[in-house]
Specification:
CATH class of the largest domain: Alpha Beta
CATH superfamily of the largest domain: Aldehyde Dehydrogenase, Chain A, domain 1
Number of strands: 23
Oligomer: single chain
Helix content: 40-55%
Strand order of the largest sheet: 14-17-18-13-12-20-21
Strand content: 15-25%
Number of helices: 17
Shape: globular
Length: 502
């Protein structure tokens, strides 16, 4: 189903599809679905209405060991890494095509599971994940090595080889897309993968495993282990996992690095939290467009984004005019039924996260001025919805202006000079993303260089999401980069080979 067809569906269409949707909840190990060895299961609850969607296998130590063992056998036999690069490319292109062919089903699973608007899962999440698989597939037969300078009696080769077994532990806010950012380059490099989705949103990961097998990815090369955080910990501690790629909170990322040190010093790549500053300078040429972008930066995906522009820094001279436009833009993000294609803001992923966000809002009432929002809405639905919330924060050190909330809560901070704005922006343990709005080209360059962030947008926010741009952060926002050819480096070992000619 293409994007135009998805957009043509209405709420009733999606409700009818939900009624007949078959949901798989078992783990996928060695090319087959199976229950957890312990027989344990947990409820998969939809944030849309609090209803149980399915019983999901709760994988434990036996399942982790089984998945890693079959991944190792497949790697050692070379059933995937040993294929001609063009053969691996063809298989992954078929997988991407199958994801597109099942876009309707995958988008519905993602919306039901994570509360994301169906308008987003059909146009961003699922096609974005398929494109990621296709992009790295196309890179397989184009990535080469080097012939290094050496003495005349030597030929020096620098090559990259698959690292081995890659465990990918991924978050719940973009369940399929963030998973693809990990498993696509890892598979493209020739590795075997064990994917551990969040227990809050495991459904699309489980489903695409069957599509991987149908596309021709050999059994054991791609495995999916649903379950609680203990499964992720077991993977991080496992002595036969060579690399672990994680997206999630900074605190959990620190624990994973410790587990790697306690076990086999496996490579660890972390994409962690953010508290991204969005700076609007006095010479911003279009306050209306900047205000719309600022609203989208924090309210898109219910604010459940590591790059969310949760700190809005506005110059004092334009603050009043800008806030007027911002409040108008925020009204477009009224929470609604995620299955309605006209809905722009869906449900918070679960009750625990909703209560966490509401706790920050309560704290904000004591340290800032509430401009709009601040309440749970749509209680009658049984789901978890919070309206767009904006605070005018007098002190940049306020808790809501420093800690990652991961919800639709925006802190507006006033500044008087560019230097002050840069100081406030960089005064954070995070460094994932930032933005600046200005009509002066010199200012744009100078501020961009001064901001300590992995991505800086100028006169836009969260644009240029193409796979060509590496994504990751400075400081405690993590290490390594997802997307782009640089991502392949994370899942390979660098080898120098010197051949003596005489």
């Amino acid at each position: 189903m293409d994007i135009m067809e998805a957009k043509s569906k209405d709420l009733n269409d999606w409700l009818q599809r939900r009624a007949t949707l078959r949901i798989e909840g078992r783990a996928f190990i060695d090319g087959a679905y199976r229950d957890a060895a312990s027989g344990k299961r947990f409820d998969c609850i939809s944030p849309i209405d609090g209803a149980s969607l399915a019983q999901i296998a709760e994988c434990g130590e036996a399942d982790v060991n089984a998945a890693v063992a079959c991944a190792r056998r497949a790697f050692d036999r070379g059933v995937w890494r040993g294929l001609n690069p063009r053969q691996r490319k063809a298989v992954m292109l078929r997988w991407g095509a199958l994801m597109r062919a099942h876009q309707d089903e995958l988008a519905l699973l993602e919306t039901l599971d994570a509360g994301k608007p169906i308008a987003d899962t059909t146009t961003v999440d699922v096609p974005g994940a398929a494109y990621c698989v296709e992009w790295f597939a196309e890179a397989i037969d184009k990535a080469g090595g080097e012939v290094a300078a050496a003495d005349h009696h030597l030929v020096g080769l620098v090559t990259r080889e698959a690292i081995g077994i890659v465990a990918a532990v991924v978050p719940w806010n973009f369940p399929l897309l963030m998973a693809a950012w990990k498993f696509a380059p890892a598979l493209a490099a020739g590795n075997s993968v064990v994917l551990k989705p969040s227990e809050k949103s495991p459904l699309t990961a489980i489903r695409i495993a069957q599509l991987a097998l149908e596309s021709g990815i050999p059994a054991g090369v791609f495995n999916v282990l649903p379950g609680a955080g203990e499964a992720g910990k077991l993977l991080a501690l496992h002595h036969d996992v060579d690399c672990l790629a994680f997206t999630g909170s900074t605190n959990v990322g620190k624990q994973i690095m410790q587990y790697a040190g306690q076990s086999n010093l496996k490579r660890v790549w972390l994409e962690l939290g953010g508290k991204s500053p969005n700076i609007v300078l006095a010479d911003c040429a279009d306050l209306g467009r900047a205000a719309q972008a600022a609203a989208s930066a924090i309210f898109y995906n219910m604010g459940e984004m590591c790059t969310a522009g949760s700190r809005l820094l506005v110059h004092r001279d334009i603050k009043d005019a800008f806030l007027d436009k911002l409040l108008v833009a925020a009204r477009k993000y009224s929470p609604g039924n995620p299955l309605d294609p006209t809905t722009s803001m869906g449900a918070i992923v679960d009750q625990a996260q909703m209560e966490r966000v509401l706790g920050y809002i309560d704290a904000g009432r004591d340290e800032a001025r509430l401009l709009t929002g601040g309440a749970r809405v749509k209680r009658e639905s049984g789901g978890f919805y919070i309206e767009p919330t904006i605070f005018d924060v007098p002190d940049a050190q306020a808790r809501i202006a420093r800690e990652e909330i991961f919800g639709p809560v925006l802190s507006v901070i006033t500044f008087d000079t560019i230097d002050e704005a840069i100081r406030i922006a960089n005064d954070s343990e995070y460094g994932l993303a930032a933005a600046v709005w200005t009509s002066n080209l010199t200012t744009a360059h100078e501020v961009s260089r001064a901001l300590r962030a992995g991505t800086v947008w100028v006169n836009c926010y969260d644009e240029g999401g193409d796979m060509n741009f590496p994504f990751g952060g400075y400081k405690q926002s993590g290490n390594g980069r997802d997307k782009s050819l640089h991502a392949l480096e994370k899942y390979t070992e660098l080898k120098s080979t010197l051949i003596r000619l005489r």
